[in-house]
Amino acid sequence: MTRSASSGSFLFPLLPLPNFVLFPGTFLPLNIFESRLRALVTEATLDEGLLVQALLRPGWETDYHRYPAVHNVACLARIVTVERIADGRLNILLEGIDRVEILDEVRDRLFRRAVVRLLPRRSRPAPIQRRRLFALLEAIFTVAGKNLPPDLFERLETISNDDLLADTLAHILHISPEEKQELLEMDSAGSRLNSVCNNILQIIRRSTSGRGTDTKEFPE
Question: Least C-beta-crowded within 10 Å: which of 59, 75, 106, 188?
Answer without folding.
Answer: 59
